[in-house]
Amino acid sequence: MIEAVLVSGFLGAGKTTWLAHHLRTTTEEVDLVVVNDFADEGVDHLLLRDAAAQVNARIASVVGGCACCERLDELRAVLLDAVNRAHATDARAAGRVLIETSGLAEPHEIVRMIDDEPVLRTNLALRTLVIVVDGLDGRRLLRHRATVRAQVALADRIVLTRADLAHEEELAELAATVRRLNSSAEVVAAGLGHERPVTPVAPPVPDTFDDAEAAGPEPRSWSIELEPGTSWAEYALWLDAVCRAHPQRLLRSKGRVPTANGPLLVQSMGAEIARPVPADGHAGTSMVFILDGLAPDLLERSLRTFVPSAFAAHRG
C-alpha cells in the first residue's frame, strides 16, 4: 500500500518552502512528489527539484489549474503511474507520495477521485492532510477567508510558517485562532527549516470572522472511543448514511475502528469515504469528527443506536 500525504494551504502560505525543508530532513522514503500549480507554467517543481533529488524522489507537475477540478484527470494519471511503477518493482517497498496542491484546491475532491478509481482505492491510502498557514498573515486570512478556515478545520497537521520572522506572541495568538477551528490537529511553528512546538495564547482582542453570523457556529471537533470488536459492517453503514445525510455538517472523520479482524484506519471528507486500510501498530481506538453545525450529542446517540457493537454496555 502506497501512503499519500496531501500538503495544502492558501496562496503564498509557504507550502513549497516547507515541503523543500521537509524533503531535506525526512527519514522516510519518498518515491514521488506531485506539484500542482494553478498557473499554466509551473515553477514550484523547479524549487523542489534539488530537495527531491536528495531523497531520490521523482517530481511530477500538474499545471494549468487545480488538481481537484480542472486537472483532476491529470493527477489521476500521475498516481496510476506511481502504482504501476511500484508493481513493476516491489509494491511492499514503495515509498510515500507527497502531493502539493494549489492554494485554491479542495482536498475532499481528491479523496473522492482516489475512492472512485478502483486501482487507486486498492493501492493508495491518504494518510495525512498537512495544512500550511502563513505565520505572519494567518490571523487576517482566517478572519476574512472562509476557504482558509475550511482547510484548517480538515487538517491532521497544521504548520505555521515564517516563524523566524513572526513575533512569538503573534504565533501563539495565531495558534489559538487555529485551535478554535480545529482542536485535534497537531500544530507546529516552522522557520528556517526547523519545526518546533507552539503554545496557543488567546489574543487580547478575540477574532471575529467575517461570515460567522451567516455561517453559524464555528467548526468543532468531537472524539469518541470505540470498543475492540466493533462491527465493521455496522460502522460502515452508519458512516455512509451520516456522510450522505450531512455532507456540509460532518466535514471530516478520521481515526481507528478496532474491528474483530484488526484495527482499520478510516477517513471521510464530506460525503466521500476513503477506502479503509489496516491501521498501524500505534495504540488508540478513537474516532475524531470535525463538525460544522452538527451537535455531538445527536451524533453520539445515532452512533450508539446503529453501531451497538462499539459500546461494551450493549454486549451480552
TrEMBL record:
Q: Which domain of life is it from?
A: Bacteria
Keyword field contains Methyltransferase: no
Record domain CobW C-terminal: where: 219-307
Reaction(s) catalysed by this chain's protein: GTP + H2O = GDP + phosphate + H(+)
Which UniProt keywords are listed?
Chaperone, Hydrolase, Nucleotide-binding
The yes or no answer to whether the keyword DNA-binding is present is: no
Q: Which family does it belong to?
A: Belongs to the SIMIBI class G3E GTPase family. ZNG1 subfamily.
Q: What is this protein called?
A: CobW family GTP-binding protein
Q: Which organism is this protein's natural source?
A: Pseudonocardia lutea
